[in-house]
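Blinded run. Sample ID left blank on purpose so nobody reads anything into the name before looking at the predicted structure. Input follows.
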Amino acid sequence: MPTLSTPINQVASSQAPAWEFRRRSSSFARQEAGASKTGLPSWSLGTSLYTSTIKLIAVITLFLLSAGCARTYQARYVETSHFLDDYSLLKDGEDGDALLSFWKDGTNWAGYKKIILDPVVISKLPDSDLNDMTHADNHKFKELFEYKMREALKKNFKLVTHSGPDTLRVQFAITDAESSILLLDLYTAFYPSARALSLLKMLATGTESYVGKASVEGKITDSQTGELLMASADCRAGGKTIMGAFDSWDDVEQAYQYWASQLNYQLCTKQGHSSCQEPE
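Blinded prediction complete.
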């Protein structure tokens, strides 16, 4: 490299002459032509970048769409256990209700101001993953669901421990819980072709691929007479969202949150209130 003390004539001689640049340009043109003859066109790199960009846009689009999807959704079918006394009372639920439900006609729901929330129990289905879990893990599910129920119901009712004329008794059982398979769940959420296959599975079976799933049954009775006022059985599965995507049990927890909010909303509306908050 020339310095301030380098003679001007040496600086000039150290620079490449104009014909050298022309020669290099000609050489580059010949290489381009040669590439075309060998079947490697000069625009192959641009095509590759274009394809990669399209794939990236597709993944980003799926990512943004997943952010607005529900954390869980109602499955198409629920298998019942032996928690309820009479399953013949259950009918197909309406929109916003459990898959199978019963609500006693003529109930004066507005007359109830308090709730006794019994401890959640486990009533395992024969093929449930709960059968392969430890007692401690089963207990964690019971505690979590019960906590979600208490937090939701105390918004509109006073939680008590003794029966009374204005008191409902709420009882729920966990019948199934299944974790998601994290890596495959993410893959089928954001890779376009895998996402399409997952949607096809949902159309065929009612649930997407590799998501978590949970099932519960519940009933509400008059705390004094024991009369059955409500009974239900429901199943929810995880949606393809980025939220909670790195927790294999997030779908189950979100299902518990939904059921707790749903029950509080249903009782609120049946009491005639206008400011009831729908479950998300």
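Unblinding after everyone has recorded impressions. The domain at 58-270 is CATH 3.40.50 (Rossmann fold).
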